[in-house]
Design goal:
Layout lengths: L12 H9 L8 E5 L9 E7 L4 E6 L7 H5 L4 E8 L7 E8 L8 H16 L5 H12 L13 H21 L17 E3 L3 E8 L5 E5 L10 E16 L1 H12 L3 H13 L7 H4 L4 E3 L3 E4 L24 E5 L12 H4 L5
Parallel strand pairs: 7-9
Antiparallel strand pairs: 1-2, 2-3, 3-5, 4-5, 6-7, 8-12, 9-10, 9-11
Length: 345
């Protein structure tokens, strides 16, 4: 198979692991299932589970002792050469990528995505198996960062819930490439944008009418051909949705595109979302209203730098104001799909 052909491993490991977990296991032994890596006849890959319900991705031939793996410091993951007898086979040395899912069950889903990324890197035949594992670990390092949050602010929680809700809509409507337009995590002034053609600022409000907080750059419509605000009413609820549910939904929509999925996880890490804190996020249930869009045009109420006769001194920063969106026509997202489609092109 040509190395330029795209090979898809998205979602293949979950059913294999579920099948293995239905079998009896013994301490110190693994039960496993081969995973075919096209074009890599000399490489063996096995997904396996142990007595403690930890998941292993075994790669053979094992690499020479590789000190790079100790530098990754991925919480919940252990990467080392180890000898195993798998499902009655003779003992053999493998590069063992172990996730402690028996102790940390919330790591199961992202680890399987991680393992599928490793298999994809191996299949490209551009790197040795150990290089493929290391390169994948580097990409995932920020998402698997050590340490768990002790609290989250409602502003951060609601803001990210709004952006993820809009990203769900974009991905469901226009496909995975819409993730590339999510520019807020990259430090841009607008949450979603594509060149100078279109920008969308996503806002969350607990109030109706919407009450939003802006800086003096966010509503400057002169930079883009079109600028929209998309608002969600978000409030705590006993029967709401959580951030991990939104993340999982987007992951499901991206499962067939490993590169875009990697980019999504990197952006999650950039906004401060960590796998270790998912249990904390799950405690916050949110009720999220349907989205309402507003076109930011010349008559839209706003404060921008050009609103001042003399621009503010450059030593003055973080100018913010509160805007109540009353008397402004709301636009359903369906009516501006032709514009929003630009975010996926």
């Amino acid at each position: 198979m040509s190395p330029n052909n795209k090979i898809n491993f998205g979602g293949i490991l979950e059913p294999l692991v579920e099948s293995l977990e239905r079998n009896p296991r013994q301490p110190g032994r693994l039960i496993g299932q081969d995973v075919i890596v096209p074009g890599s006849d000399k490489i063996t890959a096995i997904i396996a589970v142990d007595f403690e319900n930890h998941i292993h991705l075994l790669i053979a031939p094992a690499s020479e002792d590789d000190g790079r793996f100790s530098k990754l410091d991925l919480k919940g993951l252990k990467i080392a050469n180890r000898e195993w007898a798998v499902s009655g086979r003779p003992a053999h040395e493998y590069l063992d990528i172990l996730c402690l899912t028996g102790e940390l069950p919330s790591f199961r889903r992202p680890f399987l995505r991680f393992a599928e990324d490793v298999l994809y890197e191996i299949s490209k035949m551009e790197h040795t198996p150990s290089d493929a594992v290391y390169r994948t670990g580097v990409r995932w390092k920020r998402f698997w960062s050590d340490g768990e949050l002790t609290e989250v602010t409602s502003e951060w929680l609601h803001g990210l819930a709004g952006e993820l809700s809009f990203l769900v809509y974009l991905t469901e409507t226009f496909g995975p490439s819409a993730v590339k337009s999510w520019t807020g995590p990259l430090g841009k002034d607008h949450d979603f944008q594509t060149g100078t053609d279109l920008a969308v600022e996503v806002k969350a409000s607990a109030d109706m009418p919407f009450k939003i907080h802006c800086n003096i750059r966010q509503l400057d419509a002169s930079i883009f051909k079109k600028l929209y605000i998309v608002c969600y009413r978000i409030a705590s609820s006993e029967k709401g949705i959580t951030l991990p549910v939104l993340v999982e939904k987007i992951e499901g929509l991206l499962v067939d595109d490993g590169e875009v999925l990697d980019g999504f996880h990197e952006k999650l890490a950039a906004v401060g979302y960590t796998q270790q804190s998912e249990r904390l996020y799950e405690k916050h249930l949110l009720e999220i209203s349907p989205a309402a869009a507003f076109l930011v045009d010349d008559v839209f109420p706003k404060i921008a730098e050009h609103s001042f006769i003399k621009p503010p001194d450059h030593r003055i920063s973080n100018i913010r104001y509160t805007l109540q969106l009353t008397g402004i026509p709301e636009i359903p997202l369906g009516e501006i799909e032709a514009d929003l489609k630009l975010l996926a092109e």
